[in-house]
Amino acid sequence: MHVRHLQVADFRSWEQADLELEPGPSVLVGRNGQGKTNLVEAIGYVATLGSHRVASDAPLVRLGASRAIIRTAVVNDGRELTVELEITPGKANRARVNRGPVPRPRDVLGILRTVLFAPEDLALVRGDPGERRRFLDDLLVLRAPRYAGVRSDYDRVLRQRNALLKSAAANRRARRSDPDALVTLDVWSGHLAAHGAALLSARLDLVADLGPRVAAAYAGVAPESRPAQIGYRSKIEDALPAGYGKPDGERADPEVVAEILLAEMVRRRDNELERGVSLVGPHRDELDLVLGEAPAKGYASHGESWSFALALRLASYELLRADGSEPVLVLDDVFAELDRRRRQRLAEVAVAAEQVLVTAAVAEDVPGELTGARYTVADGVVERD
Amino acid sequence: MYEGPVQDLIDELGRLPGVGPKSAQRIAFHLLGAEPADVTRLQEALQKVKEGVVFCDVCGNVSEESTCRICRDARRDPSAVCVVEEPKDVLAIERTREFKGRYHVLGGALDPLSGIGPEQLRIRQLLSRIGSQEITEVILAMDPNTEGEATATYLVRMLRDFPGLTVTRLASGLPMGGDLEFADELTLGRALSGRRTV
Ligand SMILES: Nc1ncnc2c1ncn2[C@@H]1O[C@H](COP(=O)(O)OP(=O)(O)OP(=O)(O)O)[C@@H](O)[C@H]1O
Ligand SMILES: [Mg+2]
Ligand SMILES: [Zn+2]
């Protein structure tokens, strides 16, 4: 697939921007702070309904404006769809497909798929477990958009159950009688287990599919380094069938996982009632990144961490392609961070993509293979050279 | 900001669901220019909802008398009760013309984040209604979202000990994450006729 047209209004630094794009490589060049990343961030937003740089929508709206608009025309197998998003912080965002409103913005997921490489990716290796959970969940949604619903239902049930645990914990401390608490807690536990199992099973399968690709991609970018591995670490892993999450193991069965989650919640109920939070579920899990024998986090060198981050993205791209979709590659300011070999490796993959969008402050940082269409970004204007 | 009463009116209107600041302003200036008789009628209508509307003793729906029209209607099947969250859901189901029984309005759904547990809903009234009347089927028609689902699960638990009572749920097919009120008549009608026992 490829993005044929991008138009934004009041998005980040752009009051207006409008550019026609083509398949193959396109490079956006401009001095620091001219708004290159802002443009590819808009494209990423259409694919994921989120930014790779910030967790909330507010910074995406141009200072002084009340809402931002992103319009894209996406061509997939010769069929073009236009997606329009209106981002209004503090209110429900709105979406239109081919000019017709859709009930919810998440109905546009799946129209555009992107894999975005950015300097922020280093946090995948060095950041909190939350970063890696988000990486997995974002990729799940790219693979199958229905997981956007699974994920938001799980978050909602989790917040409800935590609210209940919190008030139950307070009642317990105050020795107030709370006859309904246990029955209602059971109800929410059942729902948390069901939604949690859907998410957790999908993550296990994803890690099984991704693992060999990460190992191969890492070996490609850093052949001299120790082998890289990933693994899913769960609060309930001891109870899970051993093959779950393993490349040659069986697919995870959500019903089996739900039962295990529920049993663990029952087992830890006192603990949960004391602490007032949910202690079991995919929100507490972690994606382990291992280099040789040691965890990458805390042990890997700067270069190794970069290679690992790069391998995670490359593997994501390979996986989506193996699923049969051809995602748009976005390389935001990454070449400046990489040495020659890793640049070369990334360029080899990127030239084969249907479309690749590159941003760079200095054109010379971009490998020769990727000099396709060139756009200059300066003073609030983007122009095709 | 406008001065005094006009801004007060805009603020009050802006608090209403679905009314943004621009609409609030438009309505306020419309009222400012309206005939006094029209404004008086609106004023009276507002007054009456608070004073004149009561909730049905039996089902909890909004009503003009102590028992609502549906509960008084002898043609309605007294053996089937459809449990909904809000009075507006009664209207949505009535529009489908698929259901001939009576209703029970809970007044919301389980929602710990807003401090709503079983005690805050009309669940006790539902249980005593089932215990004392000739009810043989309860249809759970909660909103298809997490709070609605949890409420339905809770009710299934509370109802499973009544001998001879069939408990059914609306068939799936309602868009998840939704609101019963906004489901179109056809979908809602189908969900009703395809309800399954739980
Ligand atoms: N909400 C916003 N409103 C107005 N300006 C914004 C907003 N968000 C970011 N900016 C501005 O956008 C500029 C950054 O744009 P961007 O990150 O796209 O730069 P870039 O061209 O990618 O630069 P670099 O080469 O350094 O990566 C900054 O000057 C910042 O002040
Ligand atoms: Mg940048
Ligand atoms: Zn009634």
TrEMBL record, chain A:
<comment type="similarity">
    <text>Belongs to the RecF family.</text>
</comment>
<protein>
    <recommendedName>
        <fullName>DNA replication and repair protein RecF</fullName>
    </recommendedName>
</protein>
<keyword id="KW-0235">DNA replication</keyword>
<dbReference type="InterPro" id="IPR042174">
    <property type="entry name" value="RecF_2"/>
</dbReference>
<comment type="function">
    <text>The RecF protein is involved in DNA metabolism; it is required for DNA replication and normal SOS inducibility. RecF binds preferentially to single-stranded, linear DNA. It also seems to bind ATP.</text>
</comment>
<keyword id="KW-0067">ATP-binding</keyword>
<dbReference type="InterPro" id="IPR003395">
    <property type="entry name" value="RecF/RecN/SMC_N"/>
</dbReference>
<keyword id="KW-0547">Nucleotide-binding</keyword>
<keyword id="KW-0742">SOS response</keyword>
<dbReference type="InterPro" id="IPR001238">
    <property type="entry name" value="DNA-binding_RecF"/>
</dbReference>
<feature type="binding site">
    <location>
        <begin position="30"/>
        <end position="37"/>
    </location>
    <ligand>
        <name>ATP</name>
    </ligand>
</feature>
<dbReference type="GO" id="GO:0000731">
    <property type="term" value="P:DNA synthesis involved in DNA repair"/>
</dbReference>
<dbReference type="GO" id="GO:0009432">
    <property type="term" value="P:SOS response"/>
</dbReference>
<keyword id="KW-0227">DNA damage</keyword>
<keyword id="KW-0963">Cytoplasm</keyword>
<dbReference type="Pfam" id="PF02463">
    <property type="entry name" value="SMC_N"/>
</dbReference>
<dbReference type="InterPro" id="IPR027417">
    <property type="entry name" value="P-loop_NTPase"/>
</dbReference>
<keyword id="KW-0234">DNA repair</keyword>
<keyword id="KW-0238">DNA-binding</keyword>
<dbReference type="InterPro" id="IPR018078">
    <property type="entry name" value="DNA-binding_RecF_CS"/>
</dbReference>
<dbReference type="GO" id="GO:0006260">
    <property type="term" value="P:DNA replication"/>
</dbReference>
<dbReference type="GO" id="GO:0005737">
    <property type="term" value="C:cytoplasm"/>
</dbReference>
From TrEMBL, chain B:
<dbReference type="Pfam" id="PF21176">
    <property type="entry name" value="RecR_HhH"/>
</dbReference>
<dbReference type="InterPro" id="IPR006171">
    <property type="entry name" value="TOPRIM_dom"/>
</dbReference>
<keyword id="KW-0863">Zinc-finger</keyword>
<dbReference type="GO" id="GO:0006281">
    <property type="term" value="P:DNA repair"/>
</dbReference>
<feature type="zinc finger region" description="C4-type">
    <location>
        <begin position="56"/>
        <end position="71"/>
    </location>
</feature>
<protein>
    <recommendedName>
        <fullName>Recombination protein RecR</fullName>
    </recommendedName>
</protein>
<dbReference type="Pfam" id="PF21175">
    <property type="entry name" value="RecR_C"/>
</dbReference>
<comment type="similarity">
    <text>Belongs to the RecR family.</text>
</comment>
<dbReference type="GO" id="GO:0008270">
    <property type="term" value="F:zinc ion binding"/>
</dbReference>
<dbReference type="InterPro" id="IPR015967">
    <property type="entry name" value="Rcmb_RecR_Znf"/>
</dbReference>
<dbReference type="InterPro" id="IPR000093">
    <property type="entry name" value="DNA_Rcmb_RecR"/>
</dbReference>
<dbReference type="GO" id="GO:0003677">
    <property type="term" value="F:DNA binding"/>
</dbReference>
<dbReference type="Pfam" id="PF02132">
    <property type="entry name" value="RecR_ZnF"/>
</dbReference>
<keyword id="KW-0233">DNA recombination</keyword>
<comment type="function">
    <text>May play a role in DNA repair. It seems to be involved in an RecBC-independent recombinational process of DNA repair. It may act with RecF and RecO.</text>
</comment>
<keyword id="KW-0227">DNA damage</keyword>
<keyword id="KW-0862">Zinc</keyword>
<keyword id="KW-0479">Metal-binding</keyword>
<dbReference type="GO" id="GO:0006310">
    <property type="term" value="P:DNA recombination"/>
</dbReference>
<dbReference type="InterPro" id="IPR023627">
    <property type="entry name" value="Rcmb_RecR"/>
</dbReference>
<dbReference type="Pfam" id="PF13662">
    <property type="entry name" value="Toprim_4"/>
</dbReference>
<keyword id="KW-0234">DNA repair</keyword>
